[in-house]
Amino acid sequence: MYGHCYHATQAMYYLLDTDTLDPMSARDYRGDLHWWLRDRENGFVIDMTADQYYSVGKEPPHDKGKVSKWYGWKHRPHKRTMVLMMKMQEEARMDSWAADHLTPS
Q: Each residue of 14-45: pLDDT tens digit?
């Protein structure tokens, strides 16, 4: 899952639709930025791509994480994120709202 943490995290953020999750990011052992979600009420970490670290004997950089803002205009979901969300929800369609509000990626 290397290279997919941003869009996977952003998709989960919008699909879970709660106001208790913070997007988090930190530099990993390679110097790359890694993204995940943290529940601010209980500290629970939601990291859909953590296995990219565990599979090579490394730990995700959760201990260095900081609350982060989404990239793009007005922090709206990227097109790539929307495509992922549509794949996750087969019944979802790219409607006129999405076409008008997507952040180009």
A: 888 889 999 999 999 999 999 999 999 999 99
26 SS3 class: strand
What does the DSSP assignment read for 65-105?
-EE-PPSSGGGPPBHHHHHHHHHHSTT----HHHHHHPBP-
pLDDT tens digits, 82-95: 777 777 776 555 55
pTM: 0.74
Q: Residue 42: what are its φ and ψ, rounded to 5°?
A: -125, 0
DSSP-derived 3-state class of residue 37: strand
Identify the CA nearest to 24 among candidates 41, 6, 11.
6
- C-alpha span between 8 and 22 (Å, rounded): 14
